[in-house]
Amino acid sequence: MKKNIVVVLLMILGAMLIWGCVPQAPLPEAEEAAPPPPEKVELEWWTVQAGEQPAIAHWDYIIEEFEKKYPNVEVKRVDMIDEDFKTGLTSSMAAGIPPDLWFSWGGGILKAQVDAGHVADLTDLLTEPWAKEVVPRSAVAQSTFYDKHYALPL
């Protein structure tokens, strides 16, 4: 009986050795998963330049170039006249749904929006190299409150 067990074990061992010597087909390399495409983002931008063709053409060009560089971002520009803009902005902020970007007058109007918590702090953005080249330091005074910057002068 012991002899039969030894023979069976030797056969199993031999089969394992033979199996180990047979060339194995290479495993297909795991393909790296492509990163998901960036999420689509829509920015709503309110201007006070309704009917001002030279300005509108300029902003159309800026938006077109921006969207080429950031294809996942769509900029929806809304042009208004001054009084409609002021009324609409005040109402949208009171409702908690302001536009993502908007033209602003510096000073008191912007400060009231900052105090109400409707405006993001752009101080870090203004320290980037491109901003130092483009934004004149003298132009940020009207949008600086509490040692923080809240607008990019145009």
Largest sheet: 3 strands, parallel
Number of strands: 5
CATH topology name of the largest domain: D-Maltodextrin-Binding Protein, domain 2
Give the SSE string: HEHEHEHHEE
Order of strands, main sheet, comes to: 2-1-3
CATH class of the largest domain: Alpha Beta
In CATH terms, the superfamily of the largest domain is Periplasmic binding protein-like II
| Oligomer category | single chain
Q: Which CATH architecture of the largest domain?
A: 3-Layer(aba) Sandwich
Shape: elongated
Q: Termini distance?
A: 97 Å
Q: Share of helix among residues?
A: 40-55%
Uncertain spans, ≥5 residues at pLDDT below 50?
A: 6-10
Q: Proportion of β residues?
A: 5-15%
Count up the domains. Answer: 2
Number of helices: 5
Mean pLDDT across every amino acid position = 80
Write down the Rg. Answer: 32 Å
Structural class from helices and strands? alpha/beta
Organism: Candidatus Hakubella thermalkaliphila
Protein name: Raffinose/stachyose/melibiose transport system substrate-binding protein
Pfam families: SBP_bac_1
